[in-house]
Each structure stands twice: as structure tokens, then as C-alpha cells.
């Protein structure tokens, strides 16, 4: 009898432990990240496996968002600003607020991105706060993305302050995480954009939060980055009705 009672107590304790752990996982994304558990729900619902999207900046000129929506585009990423790769100054995208307003009016599901040249966690935090201030009066339902990449000069060589900073892959990851944690603290989901090569060689992806969505640019027939990713920018020469420029970037949100 004593053994039965003891066994029941052990089972009860185990069930209580499982219940507490389950509750913590449900309500604490930080614990999930510490345990290496991905916490990235699909923004398109359970029945959507692939969503088609574009990304837009002032370089795409005027955008007729109603035409874009009717052409079958499911989502759009809008650039809200950038940090100069030489000056280091933060600059708003000239068309950001107009695109945010008109995309919302057209019923487009939207996210935003910021072209970063942050070399420190402080600069990354500054960029994130800039984005949050810009979008607070608009409907942004997709994750906020930090565009982390290296500019190239006319000779095809990397240039600018990010190159000069010579950050290690681990340091790059910490800069990205600072941006992402800042937007998450404001109630948004986070994302990082870069090329397959930068993800492979310049960022220690093992240090990137499991909560952060991955948006990879790769214009090959398939993505060459071997890690997990959520969005694939597969073309920079796309054509979509309603876009004022000759070409537009095309993306696929792939629901795993």
C-alpha cells in the first residue's frame, strides 16, 4: 500500500511539473528561446502553405496598391528608412508613410523593414525605435525586419561603415538581436533579412533568437543557405501590375 501511495505521489509531482512547464512555454517566448524551441506562428493561417509578396521602397516610385492587391500579391514589405553607409545618419524613406497608408486602405497585409548599418547594439536599438515611432499610427501585422547587409562600391567591393567596423559573426548576431528585442518589447514580431552568403559567413546564426523570422535573398533556383528560413526573396526583376518602377523584388512566405 505504501508503495502505491508513493508511486501516486511521484506521478502527481510529474504531472504538476509538466503542467507548469507547458504553461510557461505558452506564455514565455523567452523560455522557448532558451530551450531552442521555435516560436514563429504563421501570419496567413493554417491552410496557406505559400504566400506571394513584394518589398517596396522609394526606388519603386509610385505604387497603385489597389492594382497590386488585385494582381494576387498576398503581402508587402515597405521600407521605412535606412542608415547611411557612409554618414551613419538615419533617413526616412520618402514614400514610407504614403505606402503604409495606401497599402492599408487596399487591404494589403504589410510588414516593414529598415536598411541597417548599425555597428553597435546602441545603434541597432536607435534604428528599432525609429521604426516603431514611424509605424505607430499604421496597421503593421507582419514582423518588423532589420535589413542587415553590406553595400558594394563600383568595383564590386564591400564598402562603408559596417565593413570598416569588422564585426565578428557573433557581434553581428548581437547587433541584430538588439534590434529584434527592441521591436518585440514594443509588441511586434521580429525578422532579419540578408543574403544566403551573409547568413552563412557573416552572422553567427546560432545566436539569433528562435523567435526571429528569417528572410533570405537568394536568386538561384533554390536557397543555398542551409539553415531554417521563413521568407525567400527569389527575384529582383519581378513585374507586378501597379508598381511604378520597371522591376520589383518578389518574395515567397513559406509556411513550414
Can you give a write-up of this model?
The chain is α/β, with parallel strands linked by helices and 256 residues long. It has 2 domains: 1-37; 41-254, TIM Barrel. It has 8 helices and 9 strands. It has helices spanning 2-27, 29-34, 65-70, 96-105, 121-135, 161-165, 169-185, 196-201; strands spanning 50-56, 75-83, 90-92, 109-116, 144-148, 190-195, 213-217, 231-238, 248-254. Strands 1-2-4-5-6-7-8-9 form an 8-stranded mixed β-barrel. Helix 8 (196-201) links the parallel strand 6 (190-195) and strand 7. The radius of gyration is 21 Å and the shape is globular. It starts with a helix and ends with a strand. The model is unreliable at 18-37 (pLDDT under 50).
User: Domains counted in the coordinates: how many?
Assistant: 2
Distance between the ends: 50 Å
Radius of gyration: 21 Å
Unreliable runs, pLDDT <50, ≥5 residues?
18-37
Biggest sheet architecture: 8 strands, mixed, barrel
**Strand adjacency order, main sheet:** 1-2-4-5-6-7-8-9
CATH architecture assignment name of the largest domain: Alpha-Beta Barrel
Continuous helix count: 8
Fraction in beta strands: 15-25%
Provide the succession of SSEs. HHEHEEHEHEHHEHEEE
**Total number of beta strands:** 9
Q: Structural class of the helix and strand makeup?
A: alpha/beta
Mean pLDDT: 89
What is the CATH C-level name of the largest domain?
Answer: Alpha Beta
